[in-house]
Amino acid sequence: MIELIVIDVDGTMTDGKIFYTNEGDEIKAFNIKDGLMIKSWNDLGKKSAIITGRISKIVDRRAKELNITFVKQGVKNKAEMLENIVKELGIDFNKVAIIGDDMNDLSMMKLVKKTFAPVDANPYIYDYVSYPLTSKGGEGAVAEMIEILLKEENLFDKFVSLWTN
After folding, report:
1. Which of 9, 17, 31, 63 shows the greatest Cβ crowding within 10 Å of its Cβ?
2. Is the per-residue pLDDT at 109 higher than 90?
3. What confidence score (pLDDT) does residue 165 get?
4. Number of structural domains, the chain?
5. Looking at residue 49, what DSSP letter applies?
6. Helix (H, G, I), strand (E, B) or coil at 19
7. How many CA atoms lie within 13 A of 148 on its CB side?
8. 3-state class of 2 per DSSP?
């Protein structure tokens, strides 16, 4: 049973585009469907983590809105960071699922069996992806991953009940 989902940001939670204003502010767009599924995952008593190579106040804000358990930004060695989180939670890697889209996600993807990638991910990483998705990054890929996990673990009815009771 998966206890922790690990999410890359740029290219998975977003479409990978970064906009800068004339004042130097960074702008990213997040998909509301991804947010609903991440929040629901957490509301079901599961854990979530963002592990990303970039640093952005916007990511902190979005993670807080969704009650994401761990937010690790500016990470150079994603595998090492994942090892630390898994150790802190006291779980095995077989209880972890990861969604990533590019080469810097490979180190952590190699540690687990359930790996996901958006349809527009770097083609090279598909050699390490157990679940190629049909959605693009920033267009519901994270939601698609969580839906697959909920159905595989017979938790989808419990998810629906979060929104119907």
Report:
1. 9
2. yes
3. 74
4. 1
5. E
6. strand
7. 20
8. coil
Of 35, 36, 18, the closest CA to residue 27 belongs to 18
Domain of residue 136, CATH code = 3.40.50.1000
C-alpha–C-alpha distance, residues 87 and 2, integer Å: 15
Domain that holds residue 119: 4-164
Q: Which two tokens stand for residue 136?
A: 């693009």
Per-residue model confidence as pLDDT tens digits over 31-51:
999 999 999 999 999 999 999
The whole-number average pLDDT for the span 71-81 is: 98
Residues 140, 111: contact at Cβ < 8 Å?
Answer: no
Note the pTM of the prediction, 2 decimals.
0.95
Q: In what order do the strands lie in the sheet with 70-72?
A: 70-72, 47-51, 4-7, 96-99, 114-117, 131-132
Q: Which two tokens stand for residue 131?
A: 């679940």
